[in-house]
Amino acid sequence: MLKVLVIVGPTAVGKSDFAIAAAHRFAGEIISGDSVQIYKGFDIGSGKVSEDEMDGIPHYLIDVKEHDEDYSAAEFQKDGRKLIAAINARKHLPIVVGGTGLYIKSLLYDYQFMAEDQADDQYEDLSNEMIYERLKKVDPLCLEKIHLNNRRRLVRALNIYEKNKVGISAIKEAQRHELIYDALIIGLTCKREELYERIDRRVDKMFDQGLPEEVAGLISKGASFKDKPMGAIGYRQFAAYFNNEIDKTELKRLIKRDSRRFAKRQYTWFNHQLPIKWFDIGDLAAAIALIGEWYGK
Question: What average pLDDT does the structure give for the chain?
C-alpha cells in the first residue's frame, strides 16, 4: 500500500508549520486538504501559506480554481489520489494537510461518489407518493431513512438510481469504509483556552494583514457572496459589514466566535470519523518520532 501522512486538527492549531517541518525531515511534498485554499485570491482568510512560508516545499491543490468555479470532494479525491501516487513514485512522502473532513475521508477511504444530476427537481410532474412508489420497486431499503414528506431526499434517491442503475442503499453497502493507503493520521491539539487564544490572535493578524481589503478586492473583481468560497468563515461575515449592518469591531467578534465554534465541530468530526494519533502542540517531537518509526526513517 502507498504511504501517506495526514495532518489534521482544528483551525489555527499550527498544521501548516508542522507539515512543513515534517516535509523537511522526511522528504515530503504537501497536498492541501482545505476547501477554500483551492481558490485563487482567498489567501488571508483561509490561512493560506505564502511562497516564503512554504520554504521550498512543494505544495499542491492551492490556487487552482477561480472564485466562481465549483470544486467538490469527488474532484479532490481524484486529484489527491493522483498526487499521492506521483509523490510516492518519486520516493517522497505525500503529506495531506487540512481541516475539511469530507475531503480527507474521501481521499483515504474506499469512498464512492454517486453520479447524479444537478437539477433541483427533474420529477416535478410526479407527486411524493409517486416517487415513493418508484423507489419502493428499485431501492426499498433507502426508504427506511427517508420520510414520504421529504421530497428533496426522495428526488435525490431516485435520481441516483436513474444515473447509476443501482440504488443509493446498495452503493453505500458496497463501501467497506476501509483505508486504501498505509496512512498515518496525526492530529494536533492543545488546551481549549490556548486554542481560543490562538484563534483570536490569528483573526487579529488577518485584519492587520489586510483581510477587509482582500475581500473588497475579490468583490471588485466580480466575486459575490453567492460564490462557494465566500461561504467560508472569515469571508461570509463580511456581507453584513459591507451592507453597513455591523461595524469592524462586531465583524471581528463574529469571525472569532464562528471560528471557535468551527474548531469544536472539527474536533467532534475528526474524533468520530478518523483513527487519529493526537499530539499536543507542545510535544511535537513525539509526533516526529512516531512518523519516523512508521516511515522507517
Answer: 93
Nearest alpha carbon to residue 97 among 177, 186, 199, 198:
186
pLDDT digits (tens, 9 = 90+) for 35-54: 999 999 999 999 999 999 99
- Cβ-proximal residues to 249 (8 Å cutoff; 6+ apart), any chain: none
Q: Quick check: 158 and 134 in contact, CB under 8 A?
A: yes
Alpha-carbon Rg for the chain, nearest whole angstrom, is 21
All residues at 6 or more sequence positions from 48 whose CB lies less than 8 Å from its CB, including other chains: 34, 37, 42, 62, 63
Closest C-alpha among 186, 197, 228 to residue 75: 228
Q: Which three cell numbers stand for residue 242?
A: 459591507
State the amino acid at position 40 in one-letter form. K
| Phi/psi-derived region of residue 121, left when phi > 0, alpha when psi is between -120 and 50, beta in every other case | beta
* Residue 5: other Cβ atoms inside 10 A: 24
Residue 75's SS3 state is: helix
Stated as kind and residue range, the H or E segment containing 8 is: strand 3-8
Q: Which of 263, 261, 212, 250 shows the shortest CA–CA distance to 234? A: 212
Q: Which H, E and C letters describe 9-36, residue by residue?
A: CCCCCCHHHHHHHHHHHHCEEEEECCCC
Helix (H) or strand (E) holding 234: none
pLDDT band at 116 (very low <50, low <70, confident <90, very high): low
Axis-axis angle for helices 15-26, 284-295 (nearest 10): 40
Give the ranges where the chain is alpha helix by DSSP (H).
15-26, 51-54, 73-89, 101-108, 128-138, 151-164, 168-174, 192-209, 211-220, 238-242, 248-273, 284-295
User: By the 8 A CB rule, do 5 and 186 touch?
Assistant: yes
